[in-house]
Specification:
single chain; alpha+beta; 4-stranded antiparallel sheet; 5 helices
């Protein structure tokens, strides 16, 4: 087993930095473009996808509800339909068109996202699973007047992976 890349304190600080500098700006941009949005959920999953067997991926569920309905978003994605539970018409279709799908700029799925978020992901996931099956919630964002509230809702499901080195980083 390789030594950890970061200490628990370093990893916690990096999670806060990721939220503040990478994830929150995406949510703010979406909320600014779509005033009817009231909440967003940031979720993480770990599975192989093309390059790395331990990559950490993310998803967002945006909603006009106080708290996003992940099951509804997952079902809609699986069926290839608009999520009319979280994004009532007419926002559902134009939402993705005008936003070009919200993404985190330079998300390090094969690099720093692994030690930072792997401990918060579910075991044995793969890319064929639904959002509901593969992804675990990490942070809940809510519109708070002109501002944004952020609540970390993620639970450390695999604490032995907190701060872990990515598999490609073979340093012992």
């Amino acid at each position: 087993m390789t030594s950890p890349k970061f200490t628990p304190a370093e990893t916690a600080a990096l999670r806060e930095q990721f939220l503040r500098e990478m994830i929150e700006p995406v949510v703010r941009r979406c909320f600014q473009r779509h005033p009817s949005l009231r909440s967003a959920l940031f979720l993480v999953a770990q599975y192989w996808n093309d390059e790395a067997d331990d990559a950490v991926h993310y998803e967002f569920v945006f909603s006009q509800l106080e708290t996003p309905d992940v099951a509804a978003a997952s079902n809609a994605a699986r069926e290839g339909e608009d999520d009319t539970v979280n994004l009532a018409a007419p926002l559902a279709a134009p939402f993705w068109d005008t936003l070009a799908e919200p993404y985190v700029e330079a998300w390090p799925d094969n690099h720093e996202a692994i030690p930072v978020f792997a401990a918060f992901t579910r075991e044995d996931c793969h890319q064929e699973m639904s959002i509901l099956e593969a992804y675990a919630p990490y942070a809940l964002f809510r519109r708070a007047g002109e501002d944004l509230s952020v609540e970390v809702v993620g639970q450390m499901l695999r604490p032995w992976l907190d701060g872990v080195r990515p598999s490609w980083d073979g340093l012992e």
